[in-house]
Amino acid sequence: MSEIPADLLFAKSHEWVRLEPDGIAVIGISDYAQSSLGDITFIQLPAVGLTLQQGEVFGVVESVKAASDLYVPVAGAVVAVNDRIATTPEIVNRDPYGQGWLVRLRGAGSVQHLLDGRAYATHLG
Fold it and tell me: What are phi and psi of 32, to 5 degrees?
């Protein structure tokens, strides 16, 4: 079973969200997603300042197995991207919930549709 932190929320498309006390939403991909993809070789992320709508494609992750779109689980404006990912995308494989975060959004929209850790585990089967 993949690691599933209890303090995160998850989209069925395997992105996670951590809501920070300052209202910023940190977004990444789940341990299950990175494991399913295999060795990640490239991640395309959006530009800082871009406003994203929930469900919109915000990037692409490429691995030795496949390329997959990334879907933003909550609406908001991109205030930061993880620049380390450009040169060291394997960080996502090593630490998907920590140093492997992808983007930070301000003005995050509703999270009511997201799954808590237990519901996400059930979704994974």
Answer: -60, -45
CB 92 within 8 A of CB 41: no
From the list 87, 82, 89, 90, the residue with the least C-alpha distance to 27 is 82
Please report the sign of the dihedral spanned by the C-alpha atoms of residue 6, residue 34, residue 75, residue 25. Answer: positive
Q: Does domain 9-124 bear CATH number 2.40.50.100?
A: yes
Length of the chain in terms of residues written: 125
Is 46 within 8 Å of 78 (Cβ atoms)? Answer: yes
Which residues of the chain carry a pLDDT beneath 50? 1
Domain ranges of the chain: 9-124
pTM (two decimals): 0.94
Output the pLDDT for position 33. Answer: 95
